[in-house]
Specification:
Layout lengths: L11 E5 L3 H13 L3 E6 L2 H10 L4 E5 L1 E2 L2 E2 L1 H9 L4 E5 L15 E3 L4 H14 L2
Parallel strand pairs: 1-2, 1-3, 3-6, 6-7
Antiparallel strand pairs: 4-5
Helix pairs in contact: 2-3
Length: about 130
């Protein structure tokens, strides 16, 4: 019996990225993957508001957003049981203990790495 592979469902994905060009590239990648983008949020206060109130299934969080860290956003997402990945150019050094093993994309990343990170984080949340 042949096993059918189902197409991934469209996810609403929050993008938190302060570099406008990177945010646009990420948005394009996610749309090409068949997802819908929420945001992007380019500042922490805006991202916190999205994290608290917006409806979305997943998030990609840049660690350093205009000089501030995005861990308070991660805390809200964790409390809401919304899966997410971190994106960083600095590595996992300095992560709070609760996020040390969290899925992280190392910038610059390839589209397949983004897809794998999304799939990994979504699998962890099941």
């Amino acid at each position: 019996m042949e096993q059918q592979v189902s197409e991934p469902k469209v996810k609403r994905i929050l993008v938190v990225e302060d570099e406008v060009l990177l945010a646009m590239q990420l948005e394009d990648l996610l749309i090409e993957m068949g997802h819908e983008v929420v945001g992007p949020a380019i500042r922490i206060p805006e991202a916190l508001e999205f994290a608290r109130q917006a409806h979305f299934d997943f998030a990609v969080l840049d660690i350093n957003v205009a000089g501030s860290q995005s861990f308070p956003i991660a805390d809200i997402l964790s409390a809401r049981a919304i899966p997410f990945v971190f994106a960083t150019g600095y590595g996992a050094e300095g992560f709070p203990p609760e996020y040390c093993d969290h899925p992280t994309l190392q910038k610059p990343y390839e589209p397949r790495e983004l897809q794998q990170a999304i799939e990994s984080a979504l699998a962890l949340s099941v």
